[in-house]
Structure to design on (904 residues):
């Protein structure tokens, strides 16, 4: 290695690589490939009569070569800027700007360095001139003769003849057309810079990636005050969310009060997936659209293929990361999630047709009817406790706790579920890729008395207060469940929350806000889809038994990924669902 | 020392004089002159009747040098070439051994059909060609200066012939292929030989002139990168060396010797002087590659089975060796 370094092989290869980079054009001739290894036996005399003739040519050659290299470097750096910009736009990655600029700047610096450092030697200059003007190596030979040639010898005559030849050479040995490369480099550079500086097209920063314009505007216009979660929720130990701070800020609820990342206030009742609200992203990159999962959060999906190593312990962080498998794309044929999940239902689910309903229907039915599912939810929960779940959630661990120890707060549920809701309604699987199926009985929540769950297969007994981060049980979609056998969570005061109060799960492309209702009314959840006006928000009581969900929900927000379809299908096929 | 311009003019006059006898074959004539200016020997190969012997005779006449001719036959003995010690008796009746010079003692020796003699006889020329001496017993007899051997051989009718050994071949500066004349050349040959007047070349230069021209050739400067190019070409003919071209590893059994590189550079410098330049160029090297190396590489059986010639392989080698090493 050292020998090769000293001998200049690497330098030679570098020059060869540069020659290749220049392509097969006239400009390629500027990249000389004279070997660094080759040196005249006696060295090149700097006093030779040919030195003064060759120096101007060397400067010209150096300048032209530097310009070409610089143009190429500018082109490469600009192209990198453009490509990286559009890639980041597609991926909605939160790569900071330095990560974009730094490589481009590095490329440019390398180009400048090569331009300056790649100075041709006199031998190279002579070789190039010989080759260019077909001088049959007269200049190169004369350069080696130096000044110590014997007068009257053949070598002296050769030097004199070469000097005469060099004097006849034009000042500009070659007409280099650099307008093309420079124009191209300038155009690409302009595009790259414009794409970076224009706000609308700027590469999403960490904050911008989670706070698109329409959503922020919707948040700002939201009038509902921030929901005040119960102290029991806040006191619950919980793993910190792996959500970037900017993302947490992006989920700021009404009143523009950001929710800190480490605080589970929002996630206890709301899960929001942040990402570009485009179907392309959902299809291609696996990043789900912004999804507000009004469910009991912090359920940790332990299904191996769906987890990413870097994902946080909570599903919320996974979802918000935009890259986890839980946010993989969904097909329109699976929209509503009900369709897919309903196919395999064998249990008491007589609502397969309902499961095939669309998003709006699901939202309306699933949210509004959930409170009416309480009576059957218990049985469903007991069925689900047989254990088909492949996921594990904190709610599952919580469900292993006695019901009396459950610390869930039904008010924190985004949509108050009516325990009296029909069983068929409750059997609707939670749509969306954020589904977290909690096996009521298998995953630490197998005690039948903990059911209290709804037809949404909330097999968790909703009673485990210790393990629940928010003190509430979860349904399979992570929705908080009533912690008590009667469907009411401890400390909950909201309406008819017995067993089925918090089972609604919706996924929307928008921002969700939780309003406390000013302490006078029930807490509200308001979800504003991206691009929608505040007036089009979905709104429903957070903990009351009457969930009123209205508005528009994009279709792609409720598409269930195939693997989760299978999961839900398996769940229902075992008779756990209804 | 002769001036370069005089060198060029002398060479031109010699070639012009040869052309009065030999129709066509300009490249061969030029190559022969190059070999003579490089103080080298030439092996001429061609089918019978192409004027190989006439060419040698023409050069002998144009250069005004002593000419010796040896017809190689299977029963030719080395002493028939170099000479031998014979017992001689003087007037007093005293007998003594005296060296009787052979036909090799001449400035220009024509070894006609050299491959018809046995290797033993062929080897008689080894010392003469390389060291320009002939040793008989314990006494070495120097050959006259300049000394050139122009040998001919027939590529066909190989039965009863003895291919020259590599050591013998390596001593030839050039191996030239005498090709069949073109239509116009053939007509000129017939027209010229149809008369009773036989064209004979006149001396336009002498041996001393050739020696002076040879000394001037040795002063022609060579650039290092051009010399490196010639060396790399010769090394590319070595199949055992790493980095040898694929064609070399596949078809060459023995590569060229250092004499090949010497011949290339020397011939290249002669070419440059004849062109009015004073330095060796890449093109000069490439021009000298084939006549200087075609007899110095030995092809293997696979190459012969495929009908490949040394020239075709050299073409590949020259194409594979760049002027500037990559």
């Amino acid at each position: 290695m050292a020998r090769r370094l000293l001998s200049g092989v690497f330098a030679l290869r570098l020059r060869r690589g540069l020659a290749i980079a220049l392509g097969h054009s006239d400009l390629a001739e500027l990249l000389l490939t004279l070997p660094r290894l080759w040196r005249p036996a006696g060295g090149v005399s700097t006093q030779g009569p040919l030195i003064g003739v060759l120096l101007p040519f060397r400067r010209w050659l150096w300048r032209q070569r530097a310009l070409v290299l610089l143009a190429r470097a500018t082109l490469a750096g600009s192209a990198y800027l453009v490509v990286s910009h559009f890639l980041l736009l597609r991926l909605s990655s939160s790569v900071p700007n330095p990560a974009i600029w730094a490589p481009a700047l590095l490329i440019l610096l390398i180009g400048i360095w090569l331009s300056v450092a790649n100075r041709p030697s006199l031998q190279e200059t002579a070789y190039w001139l010989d080759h260019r003007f077909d001088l049959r190596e007269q200049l190169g030979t004369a350069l080696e003769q130096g000044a110590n040639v014997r007068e009257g010898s053949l070598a002296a005559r050769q030097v004199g003849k070469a000097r005469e030849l060099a004097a006849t050479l034009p000042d500009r040995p070659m007409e280099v057309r650099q307008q093309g490369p420079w124009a191209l480099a300038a155009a690409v550079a302009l595009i790259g810079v414009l794409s970076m500086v224009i706000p609308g097209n700027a590469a999403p920063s960490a904050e911008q990636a989670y706070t698109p314009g329409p959503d922020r505007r919707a948040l700002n216009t939201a009038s509902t005050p921030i929901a005040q979660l119960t102290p029991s929720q806040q006191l619950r130990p919980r793993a910190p969310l792996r959500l970037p701070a900017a993302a947490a800020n992006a989920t700021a609820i009404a009143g523009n009060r950001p929710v800190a990342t480490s605080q589970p206030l929002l996630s206890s009742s709301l899960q929001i997936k942040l990402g570009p609200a485009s179907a392309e992203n959902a299809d291609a990159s696996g990043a789900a659209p912004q999804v507000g999962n009004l469910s009991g959060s912090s359920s940790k999906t332990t299904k191996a293929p769906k987890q990413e190593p870097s994902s946080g312990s909570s599903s919320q962080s996974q979802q918000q990361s935009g890259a986890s498998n839980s946010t993989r794309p969904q097909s329109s044929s699976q929209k509503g999630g009900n369709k897919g999940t309903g196919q395999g239902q064998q249990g008491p689910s007589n609502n397969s047709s309902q499961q095939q309903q669309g998003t709006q229907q699901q939202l309306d039915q699933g949210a509004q009817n959930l409170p009416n599912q309480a009576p059957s939810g218990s049985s469903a929960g007991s069925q689900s406790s047989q254990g088909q779940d492949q996921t594990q959630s904190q709610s599952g661990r919580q469900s292993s706790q006695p019901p009396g120890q459950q610390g869930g707060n039904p008010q924190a549920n985004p949509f108050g579920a009516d325990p009296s809701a029909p069983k068929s309604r409750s059997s609707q699987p939670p749509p969306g890729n954020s589904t977290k199926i909690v096996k009521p009985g298998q995953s630490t929540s197998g005690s039948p008395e903990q059911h209290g769950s709804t037809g949404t297969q909330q097999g968790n007994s909703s009673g485990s207060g210790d393990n629940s981060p928010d003190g509430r049980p979860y349904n399979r979609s992570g929705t908080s469940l009533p912690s008590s056998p009667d469907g009411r969570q401890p400390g909950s005061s909201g309406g008819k929350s017995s067993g089925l109060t918090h089972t609604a799960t919706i996924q929307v492309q928008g921002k969700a806000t939780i309003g406390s209702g000013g302490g006078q009314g029930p807490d509200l959840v308001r979800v504003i889809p991206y691009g929608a006006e505040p007036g089009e928000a979905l709104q429903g009581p957070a903990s009351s038994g009457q969930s009123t969900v209205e508005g528009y929900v994009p279709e792609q927000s409720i598409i269930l990924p195939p693997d989760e379809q299978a999961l839900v299908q398996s769940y229902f096929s075992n008779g756990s669902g209804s | 020392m002769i001036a370069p311009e005089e060198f060029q003019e002398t060479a031109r006059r010699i070639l012009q004089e040869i052309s009065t006898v030999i129709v066509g074959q300009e490249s061969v004539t030029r190559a022969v002159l190059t070999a003579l200016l490089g103080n080298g020997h030439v092996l001429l190969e061609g089918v019978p009747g192409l004027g190989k012997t006439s060419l040698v005779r023409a050069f002998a006449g144009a250069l005004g040098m002593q000419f010796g001719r040896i017809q190689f036959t299977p029963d030719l003995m080395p002493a028939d070439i170099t000479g031998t010690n014979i017992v001689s008796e003087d007037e007093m009746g005293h007998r003594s051994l005296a060296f009787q010079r052979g036909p090799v003692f001449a400035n220009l020796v024509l070894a006609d059909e050299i491959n018809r003699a046995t290797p033993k006889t062929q080897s008689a020329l080894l010392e003469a060609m390389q060291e320009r001496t002939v040793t008989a017993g314990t006494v070495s007899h120097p050959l006259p200066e300049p000394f050139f051997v122009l040998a001919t051989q027939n590529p066909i009718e190989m039965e009863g012939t003895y291919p020259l050994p590599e050591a013998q071949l390596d001593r030839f500066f050039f191996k030239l292929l005498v090709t069949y004349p073109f239509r116009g050349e053939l007509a000129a040959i017939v027209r010229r030989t149809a008369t009773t007047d036989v064209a004979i070349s006149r001396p336009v230069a002498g041996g001393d002139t050739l020696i002076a021209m040879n000394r001037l050739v040795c002063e022609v400067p060579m650039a290092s990168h051009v010399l490196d190019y010639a060396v790399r070409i010769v090394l590319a003919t070595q199949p055992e060396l790493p980095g040898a071209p694929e064609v070399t590893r596949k078809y060459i059994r023995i590569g060229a010797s250092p004499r090949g590189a010497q011949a290339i550079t020397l011939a290249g410098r002669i070419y440059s002087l004849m062109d009015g330049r004073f330095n060796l160029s890449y093109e000069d090297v490439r021009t000298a590659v084939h006549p200087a190396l075609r007899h110095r590489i030995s092809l293997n059986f696979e190459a012969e089975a495929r009908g490949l010639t040394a020239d075709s392989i050299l073409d590949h080698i020259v194409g594979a060796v760049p002027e500037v090493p990559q």
In short: The radius of gyration of chain B is 21 Å.
